[in-house]
């Protein structure tokens, strides 16, 4: 079931999120918990601009009972969480032009900072190329026209590339 991003854009400001201007994952979880859930994408579709909050309790697709924040995780811990919990949220440094204009391949930029939490992303998995280069499969929020259909492969086991393991969080359903 796809969850409504528009629900968060329109209704999440009361929890210190700035609509399309950014926000924090744990604030989003707090909103979902207090609100009694988040609508499905089908019941509250994405329109790409801020609108009045139109949350409908009959459209709730998921709830959150709590959430887990892990500061300064290792890539090994991150890998375990992705394998056991499923997709987890993280912050990465997206300040390099190589990140902004990423289109394919396994991303690596030595200028990418490990302690700059600029962009919230969703780590959905991990893998390796045929020649053994390890990577994280990461969904960005910039739409399907960016990267590889909205995803980036960030080099794994590379001493916390772009800070991918510096702060991870996930909801407890």
TrEMBL record:
Q: Which residues form the Peptidase C1A papain C-terminal domain?
A: 1-172
Transmembrane intervals: none
Please give the superkingdom of this protein's source. Eukaryota
GO annotation (BP), single: proteolysis
The record's SMART domains line, in alphabetical order, gives: Pept_C1 (SM00645)
Q: Which UniProt keywords apply?
A: Disulfide bond
Gene3D superfamilies xref list:
Cysteine proteinases (3.90.70.10)
A molecular function (GO) term: cysteine-type peptidase activity
Which InterPro entries does the record match to this protein?
Answer: Papain-like_cys_pep_sf (IPR038765), Pept_asp_AS (IPR025661), Peptidase_C1A (IPR013128), Peptidase_C1A_C (IPR000668), Peptidase_C1A_papain-like (IPR039417)
Q: Which residues form the signal peptide?
A: none
Sequence similarity: Belongs to the peptidase C1 family.
What is the recorded name of this protein? Answer: Putative peptidase c1a subfamily protein
What is the species of this protein?
A: Rhipicephalus microplus
The top of its lineage is: Eukaryota, Metazoa, Ecdysozoa, Arthropoda, Chelicerata
């Amino acid at each position: 079931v796809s969850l409504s991003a528009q629900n968060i854009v329109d209704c999440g400001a009361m929890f210190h999120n700035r609509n399309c201007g950014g926000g924090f994952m744990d604030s989003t979880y707090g909103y979902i918990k207090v609100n009694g859930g988040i609508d499905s994408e089908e019941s509250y579709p994405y329109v790409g601009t801020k609108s009045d909050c139109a949350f409908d309790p009959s459209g709730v697709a998921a709830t959150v009972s709590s959430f887990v924040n892990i500061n300064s995780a290792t890539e090994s811990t991150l890998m375990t969480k992705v394998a056991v919990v499923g997709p987890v949220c993280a912050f990465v440094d997206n300040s390099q032009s190589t990140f902004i204009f990423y289109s394919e391949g396994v991303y690596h930029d030595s200028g990418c900072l490990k302690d700059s939490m600029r962009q919230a992303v969703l780590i959905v998995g991990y893998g390796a190329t045929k020649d053994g280069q390890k990577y994280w499969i990461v969904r960005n929020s910039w739409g399907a026209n960016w990267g590889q259909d909205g995803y980036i492969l960030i080099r794994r086991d590379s001493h916390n590339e772009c800070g991918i393991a510096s702060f991870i969080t996930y909801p407890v359903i």
